[in-house]
UniProtKB/TrEMBL annotation:
<dbReference type="InterPro" id="IPR011059">
    <property type="entry name" value="Metal-dep_hydrolase_composite"/>
</dbReference>
<dbReference type="InterPro" id="IPR032466">
    <property type="entry name" value="Metal_Hydrolase"/>
</dbReference>
<dbReference type="InterPro" id="IPR057744">
    <property type="entry name" value="OTAase-like"/>
</dbReference>
<dbReference type="GO" id="GO:0016810">
    <property type="term" value="F:hydrolase activity, acting on carbon-nitrogen (but not peptide) bonds"/>
</dbReference>
<dbReference type="InterPro" id="IPR051781">
    <property type="entry name" value="Metallo-dep_Hydrolase"/>
</dbReference>
<dbReference type="InterPro" id="IPR006680">
    <property type="entry name" value="Amidohydro-rel"/>
</dbReference>
<feature type="domain" description="Amidohydrolase-related">
    <location>
        <begin position="57"/>
        <end position="403"/>
    </location>
</feature>
<protein>
    <submittedName>
        <fullName>Imidazolonepropionase</fullName>
    </submittedName>
</protein>
<dbReference type="Pfam" id="PF01979">
    <property type="entry name" value="Amidohydro_1"/>
</dbReference>
Length: 411
């Protein structure tokens, strides 16, 4: 594809940081970066010109909770597949995410340095992949996918899978170091029970204090951070007090949790669309019976938790957590959040705030000059109605990743 400069003209330029829309704007892309933008007459430039005819131009979207290797809702079944098969599946899943407008994704269990390197080397086209390797789980925890009757657990580092089982601070510390050794951008630890694990309760508390501290110490030593899977206020609060910087899900938090999020300037990544889809089609996508019974527990409380967190000023980040064939519903998270949040807040969660969590502030999720030219073009104004992002097949006209138009037409 052409790497010539690109000049967008007659754009409704959306700035999520400022919360502004500027009709009649131009934006110049050069060498994979945003070079400049303004209103009125565009500068003369030796560039491919894309006349947007008033459509909205905005930063590419960020999904901060994906599982690119999750070819089924039965997460344990991934380890039964050959690594080559799982890699091929992940390549397609990532390509589809880019086509839906997500130019950066954070994998929180399964995605690894091999996939990130393959994408960086151009072996396939997809979004920027921020990976953590395998999540860390205690025996019988959310990352232990053995059915009750199976007693042997194989934790071969080269085998595909979302998690590794370890017990005791020494084992957790070593597992954290192993993930960081591969270049992981974060380390994930299981702090409570979950939906997709067969033998734990949603309201269980997992990982001992000294195990959590060991992982936090290793992440901080490597200038990285820990994110924690947790649903209940008890599990969330414990993690935040022990130095966990980000919480995944948090459907069952309460007022005490909100105080701790603010105190520690921590982040919350709700993933509401996954419960909608697990309720609708989890069974036919491989979700085990014992996991299906857990869905209602978290489904009914998720929106209330999101509303509480938004009103309290918690750092909220966009995430979806969809598995297998349900990943096609990724953008519907925008419509769900719009039920309790104003459009600018939802858009910031998928751009500016997500970039800050990932340590990429000013480089993604923004239209600042010097930022990566990760951009999308949509019909409609997402600052007024963010649900236009929920229907990419209808409203998404163009996707640019690092200065190259990957989907849509040039000129």
């Amino acid at each position: 594809m052409s790497t010539r400069p690109v000049l967008f003209t007659d754009a409704n330029l959306i700035d999520p940081e400022a919360g502004t829309a500027r009709p009649g704007s131009w934006l110049l892309v050069r060498d994979g970066l945003i070079a400049d933008h303004g209103t009125g007459t565009a500068p003369g430039a030796d560039a491919d010109v894309i006349d947007l005819a008033g459509a909205s131009l905005l930063p590419g979207l960020v999904d901060a909770h994906v599982h690119v290797t999750a070819l089924s809702a039965d997460l344990g079944s991934v380890s039964d597949r050959a690594p080559s098969y799982v890699a091929a599946y992940a390549a397609r899943a990532l390509s589809d995410m880019l086509r839906r407008g997500f130019t950066t994704v954070r994998d929180v269990g399964g995605g690894d340095h091999g996939l990130a390197d393959a994408m960086a080397d151009g072996l396939f086209v997809g979004p920027r992949l921020i990976f953590g390797g395998k999540a860390l789980s205690q025996t019988g925890g959310h990352g232990d996918f053995r059915p009750r009757g199976r007693h042997v657990h194989d934790d071969h580092a080269c085998c595909p899978g979302a998690a590794i089982v370890c017990d005791g601070p020494v084992a957790f510390r070593k597992a954290a170091r192993e993930q960081l050794r591969t270049g992981a951008h974060h380390v994930k630890i299981m702090l409570s029970g979950g939906v997709a694990s067969p033998t734990d309760r949603i309201d269980s508390v997992q990982s001992a204090d000294d195990e959590i501290r060991a992982v936090v110490e290793e992440a901080e030593a490597a200038n990285r951070y820990v994110t924690g899977h947790a649903y209940t206020a008890r599990a969330v609060n414990r993690g935040l007090r022990l130095g966990v910087r980000c919480i995944e899900h948090g459907n069952l938090i309460d007022e005490s949790s909100l105080d701790l999020f603010r105190e520690h300037d921590a982040y919350l990544v709700p993933t509401l669309v996954t419960y909608q889809e697990l309720a609708r089609q989890g069974a036919r996508n491989g979700l085990p019976r014992e996991s299906q019974d857990k869905v209602d527990t978290v489904l009914t409380r998720g929106l209330d938790a999101l509303r509480m967190a938004h009103e309290a000023g918690v750092n909220l980040v966009f995430g979806t957590d969809l598995l297998g064939g349900m990943q096609a519903h990724q953008n519907e998270e925008f419509a769900i959040r719009a039920q309790v949040q104003p459009a600018p807040a939802v858009l910031r969660s998928a751009t500016v705030t997500a970039a800050r969590l990932l340590g990429l502030e000013g480089r993604i999720g923004t239209v600042r000059p010097g930022a990566h030219a990760d951009l999308i073009v949509v019909d409609g104004d997402p600052l007024q109605d963010v649900t236009v992002l929920a229907c990419p097949e209808e409203n998404l006209r163009l996707v640019m990743a690092q200065g190259i138009v990957r989907h849509g037409q040039v000129g």
